[in-house]
Structure formats: C-alpha cells, structure tokens
Amino acid sequence: MAMLEIDGVSKRYGGLQAVKDVTLRVGKGEIVSLIGPNGAGKTTLFNLITGFARPDSGRVRLEGEDVTGLSPEAVARHGMVRSFQITNVFANMPVIENLRLASYLRMRSPLLSDVFGLRSARDRAARTMKEANGILDLVGLARFRDTPAKRLAYGQLRLLEIAIALCVRPRLLLLDEPAAGLNSREGEKLTELLRRLRDGRGLTVLLVEHDMDLVMSVSDRVVVLNFGEKIAEGTPAEVKENPQVIEAYLGTPFEEEAA
Amino acid sequence: MTENRIVLLLLALAAVLPAFVGDQYVMHLLIMTFFYAMLSTSLNLIVGYVGELSLGHAAFLGLGAYTSAVLSTEAGLPFWLCLPAAGIVAGTAALAVGAITLRLEGHFFVLISLAFAEVLRYVVMNSVELLRGPLGYPNIPAPSLSFGGTVLADFASKAHFYYLGLALLAATLYAAWRFARSSFGLGALAVRENRRLARAVGIDPFRHALVAFVAGGVLAGIAGSFYAHYLTFVGPEVLGFSFTLSALMMVVIGGRGTLLGPLLGAAVVGITLELLRSVNEARLSIFGILLVLAVMFLPDGLVSLRWRRRPEPAEESPTEALDSPLRS
Amino acid sequence: MLLSDFLQFALNGLVTGCFYALTALGLSLVFGLMNIVNFAHGALFVLGGMLASVATERLGLPLWAAIPAVLAIMWGLGVVIEAGLLARMRDAHILPVTLVTIGLSVFLVNTMLMLFGTEPKNVKTGLEGAPIFLGDVIISQSRILAIGVSVVAIIATWLLISHTRAGRAMRAVFQQPEAAALAGIPIARIHSFTFALGTTLAGLAGILLGAVFVVDPSRAEPAAVKAFVVIILGGIGSLPGAVLGGLLLGLAESLWGGFVSTGYMDAVGFVLVIAILLFRPSGLLGAPASRVG
Fold it and tell me: Residue span of the signal peptide, if any (chain C) (predicted)?
C-alpha cells in the first residue's frame, strides 16, 4: 500500500483554480519531489494534504486511511507532519524547548495523572527528552541545545524545523522548500540528511523544492505541477527530458530557470 | 532564587504577618489582596498561558458568588459545601461558553466573551423574583469550622478569614503551577507561541484553550464564593466588567504567563490604589495613566525586571551547525 | 399594537441608530485597519459631546461654529493618541494594546468626571422650536438635525474613502497590508489618518447625542461596547455593515423597549451578537470569523 495517495484533489479560490484534479502516490520509504514554477499550486497542495485548507473535491489517504478534511492537528496525529515555506519555529524558546513542545503528543498522558505529577508522566517526560537530544545530534544542532531559536542562523533554523517535525515521529514528512535560502554546501548537507532519514529511519518524504540540484540528487521520483495541474511524473532523469516540463519553465533551458 | 521559591516565601511571610499587624483595616486590605490574587491567577490561566484575551471573566466570579449566596441563604448549606459547588457551577458555565466561543478568531473572542458576561449581568439584574435582581443577597453567613461538636473557628474575627483566604490562595497557586507544568500547560504554551506550528505538530488549540478556560472558571468561581462569604453581600456588580478589568490589570502589570506575576500584580495594584486615596478625585485618572505607562514600558510585567532574559549576546552567529555531525 | 406607535418607536430607533452607526463606523475603521480593539472609543465619543457642551453652553458659540471646532480638536487628539501610544505598539500582542486603550479610557473618563462632574450635559442647538408632526408621529427639530448631520457625515466618510487618494490607500491597507507596504503606501501615515478619522466620527456622534439627549461620562463604556456589538452585527471589515448594523440595533432596541420590556433593552444587542456569531459568524455583510490557520 502506498504511504500517501492523493486522488483527484482540486481547490478553487475565487476565480483561481489553484489545484486541479491532482492525483499522485508516494510509496513507503520514497523521497518524492514536487516541482513547478511559482504559483503552480505546490504549497496549496501541501495545505490541502495537511488540513490547513480543505479540498473542494478529491480524497487524501495515508496508508489507506482517509484523512481528507481533517484538522491540521488531527492530520499530524495520523503521522503526517509538515514544515512551512516561511521559517516557523517557537522563536522565543531555546532549541531544546522547541523539540520538547513538538514531542508533546507523545509526552501527553492522561490529564489527571499528569497534573498530579505521577511517576508514569515523569518517566515519559524523561524518555522524550532523551529522544529530543538524539534528534538534535542527528540534524547537527546539539551544540545549540540551549540557544534561543531566534538567535540561530538561517540554515540552522531550517534544520530546527526538520528536527521539530521529526519529534512528532512522522511516518510521512512534508517539507516545503527546506533548501530555500541555504548556500550550496548547506544544501548538500540537507541532501545527506534526507537520505539518512530515508535509509536509516525508513521515513517517507514529500518535498516542494526549487533547488534543482537537491531535487535531482535526492529524489526517487519527481512530480511536476503547472497552473495547478500535474503535467509530468517520473524519475529525475525522465522529468528533465520531458518537453512539457521544459515548456512549463517558460521554454528556458531547465537548469537555468531552476538555478 | 527561583520563581517558585519566591512565591513560597511570600506565602510564608503572609502566614506570620498577622502576628505583627493588628490593624483591622490593613487586615481587610490583605484579605482583599488574597481575593484579587486568586481572581487574577485564575484569569492568567487563559490570558497568560493560552494567550486568549477573555473579557468575560467576571461572569465566572459572579456565578461562584451567586451560587454560594443562594445555597447558603436559601438552602442553608454550610460554606464548605458552597465553596466546591461554586467552583462546579462556574466551571460548567465556562465549559459551555468556552465550547462555543473559543473557536472564534482572537478579536471576535475578545468581544463575544464580554457579550456573554454582560448578558448574564442583565439577566441577573432583571430577574427580581428568582435572583432578587439589583437587591442582591445580604447576610450571607460566615463559614464555621467545627470538629466533633467543638467549634475550631467561627470566623467572627478577620484573622480567621485571613487564613482562609491565604489557604485558598495557596491552593489556587498550586493548581495553577500544576497546570503550567503539565503537558497540557506545555501544549497551551505552544499554541500561544506559534499557533500554526502547534497545529502542525498535532496540538489542538481549541482543546487546550478550553481546558485552561474551564480551569480558570473553576478557580474564579471559588474566589467568588470566598468573596461572598467574606463581604456577606452579593449583587449584580460582581458580574460587572470592572472585576475583569482589575484582574486583567493585575495579570499584565505583574507579568502574564507566570506564577508570581498575578500575585505581585494584585499586591501592587492594591497598594497603588490605596496610596492614591490621598488625591481622591484624581485617583482613577492617575491610575489610568499608570496603567498605560506600565503596559507600554513594562509589557512583560514586573516579573520581567527580575527574570529579564539574560542580556542578548553580541550578534556572533553560531557557525556552521551543518558541518559536524552528518559526517559520520 | 398601533401602527402609529410602531412608527414612533421606529423613528426613535432610527435616531439612536444614527449614533450607533457613526460610532461604529469610526470604530470599524480602527478595528479593521489597525487591528485594535479600542476601548477608549466610548470615552472619545463622550468627550466630543462634553466639548460641544462647553462650547455652546459656556462659551456661547453657535452650533454651526462649535461642531467644526470640536471636530478639529478631536482630530488632533486622535493624531496625538495614535502617535504617542498606538504607533509604538504596532506589532504588539492584542492583550497589551487592548489594555492601553482601556487605560486611556479610564484616564479620559475620570478626568472628565473631575473637570465636568457627574451631571449630564446638554449641547445647545438653538433649535428649541415646536416639534414637527408627521401624521401621528412626532419628531423634534434637534432629532431631524441629528439624522441630517449623520447622513451627511456617513456620505462624507464614504466619499473620503472611495474617492480620495488617502481613502484608496486606506482600503489597500485594509485589504492587503503586506501588499500595500510593498507598494510603498506609507502605512504609518494611513494609521494616523485612520485613527484621527475614527476619533472624529466618535466625537461627532457624541455631539449629536448631546444635542438630542444628554451626555455624561458614565456613557463611555456602554457606548464602546455597543459600538463593538454593532460592528460584529454588521460584519467586521465592512463599513456599510457598520452603518447598517448601527441602524438595525437602534431599531431593534427601540422596538423591543417599546413593545416588550425596557429592562432588557441594553441586552438586545448582546443577544443579537451571540445569535449572529453562532449562526452567521461573518456578520451581516462581512468575512468569516472562525480561524483558518
């Protein structure tokens, strides 16, 4: 069974058909990239999948379970966790506190046992903390454990976002332009991190990305959107050669626009 | 010294204070300060921890006070039963109101919360037959504490009320502290800090706001019960906006989202109003200015003077996090 | 129930509705554009009436001279409040901003009490002539004046917003703050202009209230709350909604008070608001109130 199945999803905002009858599948353990020119509907599609917007029609299934139209928090609880295009962290809090908040779902215990500080709740809190530290090591932010998030450099913020998402223990991770604003070396590190998440943790990743180096090197498959419609799908190599895709990027040579 | 220790120290100081203060008027002011500290602590749960501006908090205070007034004067129930009943009634009302209003966007919530409280006030004011309307309930009996036929405390003196108020305040603070430290408090904090991200990691803002709202309602109801039995009179004005306003000022001036803040706020606002008595006519005008200045220049309240975040280090950006660990 | 009673109550309601519409219009501008829950709006409303009372009763100015003078003062006061307080808190949380307006309101109301006392004040109109009969319905000359001035003010505000450069900039900020900033619209000046306009409209409503009935500082808080009720009824962000909501609330209260019970008259608005938010959260003419993200 596929990890994520999107079936004929559409969304219209006033006169604008933002997403039109998009169908796509993401297999377990795959990294799939969603690309397309600006305004192609990629972020809208993300919002539709994760409950931040409600599709006009179509279904979204996560491992066969229908999650269409659920609230964002319910979607997250089903194991589908997203990051945002614009950096989004708990800015006033230290890095580790960010992760503690993100681990909240697993830390939560029955209200009363928690309020009365029972041992089970405390044990759970200790375990969560340990795991958060592990995730910090994994993404490489261990050194900034106690740094307030707003004091991190841009590239580190993007990593923190991924770490936050990982704390929810997702089955499927959706990343909205994780490489935006990263320099090329940071981009390579991100590629490496994504591969490790897939290979080491068996995580499935769907990402929206403009950085074609990243897309081409990390993706198992690439899906291309234009004007809200899916116009192509395939391996990175296939998509690169697809005439429709080249056309969509304004006829300019693909690499140039993408860079 | 941590915040918790300061709170404990203040409570301990308050416990020994009556040994040195005999003046009845000062005792009265202190008892009212306990009451306001309870009220603002209860409001702080929703305003400080969840970040929703509720302007209808007096409704829960008033419901608690009226519950106590009606049960003790009409049904003759003792204070010790009226008190929990007041909490339950106010909490139930908070559940109903919160379930309807907390789904609304912030600015709407502000106004609708006020609307509910005002409607309640009009209803009470106009139901002369059922709730005595503007007449209110006089002669609410004082509590009494007896054990096996021996009366331990008859609450004829202010000192008894003083310790009752202090005990209730301590219990309120303990409840608030427990709430803030629970995972529920943590979730509420996440919602306050970044609502979108909180939702993306699976935290339901509505549910958290509702729990805080109900907890705040229960505590406000209990404060209302204490108020009713201490002042022996309850009228529609306990449902009025001015109680909400006072509590709100105390929360913000003290420091919202902290345990110590409402406590400090209640003390400081109370003392300031007392000091301004000498300039009687201009008292509230000056108070208005002080409120504006306090909010503008000390937006995080008095507690931020002590717990101001450590000075920001110079802009040396922590370098190259991406470097090390992925290398393995 | 008699038709003439109904018409008389409706007419009275229309007069009150004009006050509501004017106050709500000013508040709606400030609320919609600057995102401020301005509790001082009611105090500013009363202040307008108080100043006009001083101008006409004590200084003996004729009404036609007093109105522009008071409005000019209100405008200036609006600019000062915006620059001194609100502009410094533009990105602050709703809580401190609301509290600042509450503090301002406490200050204004109590200072007025100190200066003018608790006694209700009247604005002298010079229109002490006999009331006018329209069939069985009676209307005083000052009420006709109030309705007339309100209509003129509402039309003037509408022209200002739809036909001037400042108005267009206001609408742009209203609808798309980010885009407006990118397009180089001076947001700071627009905020100043908007708040001054809101303050002036509140002041005008206060003047008219004083001309028809009386004003006193105790009316400040209920007036602010009523104005909020009106903009929720009409729909937040909708200026026609504010006017319509004001007129409807005036009518509803007057008819309720006339035919049912005067006790609950002031609760009518709240009940309407609760009903509206439960069944049509967007108000009569507005955008949805529930949260999106």
Answer: none
The answer, for B282 touching chain C at a CB cutoff of 8 Å, is: yes
Phi, psi of A13 (to 5 degrees): -115, 105
When mean pLDDT is compared across A43-57, B197-211, B299-313, C77-91, the lowest value belongs to B299-313
The pLDDT score that the predictor gives to residue C4 is: 83
Give the best residue of C33, C101, C107 to mutate against chain B (max B CB count within 10 A). C107
**pLDDT of res. B226:** 97
The answer to whether A33 touches A57, Cβ cutoff 8 Å, is: no
> Residue C133: is it exposed, middle or buried by C-beta count within 10 angstroms (0-12/13-18/19+)?
exposed
- Per-residue pLDDT band for B214 (boundaries 50, 70, 90) equals very high
**CB < 8 Å to C226, chain B:** none
Alpha carbon distance C84, B296 (integer Å): 10
Nearest to B291 among C99, C111, C264 (CB): C99
Question: Helix, strand, or coil here: A80?
Answer: strand
Q: Quote the minimal CA–CA distance from B74 to chain A in Å.
A: 35
> Which two structure tokens, joined as six digits, stand for B57?
């908090």
Residue C142 CA to residue A175 CA, distance in Å, equals 66
CA–CA dist C221, C101 (Å, integer): 12
Does the distance separating the beta carbons of C229 and B291 come in below 8 Å? no
* B194 interfaces chain C, CB cutoff of 8 Å: no
- The span from the CA of A50 to the CA of A65, in Å, is 14
- Please tell me the distance from the alpha carbon of residue B304 to that of residue B261, in angstroms, as a whole number: 9
CB B162 within 8 A of CB B23: no
Q: Which chain A residues have a beta carbon less than 8 Å from that of C292?
A: 52-53
Question: Domain range holding C157?
Answer: 3-219
Identify the DSSP state of B138. Answer: -
- By CB neighbour count within 10 A (0-12 exposed, 13-18 middle, 19+ buried), where does C134 fall? exposed
d(CA C6, CA B318): 75
Q: Does domain A1-79+170-259 have CATH number 3.40.50.300?
A: yes
SS3 C36: coil
Q: Could you read off the pLDDT of C168-209 as tens digits, one per residue?
A: 888 888 777 767 777 778 888 889 999 999 999 999 999 999
Q: Which residue of C has its CA nearest to A48?
A: C293
Alpha carbons C28 and B198: distance in angstroms, whole number: 31
Q: Is the pLDDT confidence value at C237 over 80?
A: no
**Do the domain assignments include residue C16?**
yes
* Beta carbons of A124 and A107 less than 8 angstroms apart: yes
Q: Please report, rounded to a whole number, the percentage of residues in chain A having pLDDT higher than 90.
A: 28
Provide the residue type at C222 as one letter: P
Domains detected in chain B:
3-303 (1.10.3470)
Q: Say yes or no to pLDDT of B320 above 50.
A: no
The verdict on C293 touching A (C-beta cutoff 8 Å) is: yes
Q: Report if residue C203 sits inside a domain.
A: yes
| Of C34, C250, C43, the residue nearest C150 (C-alpha) | C250
Tell whether C280 is within 8 A of chain B (Cβ).
Answer: no
DSSP single-letter state for residue A53 = S
Interface of B with C in 196-215 (CB under 8 A): 196, 199
Residues of chain A with CATH 3.40.50.300: 1-79+170-259
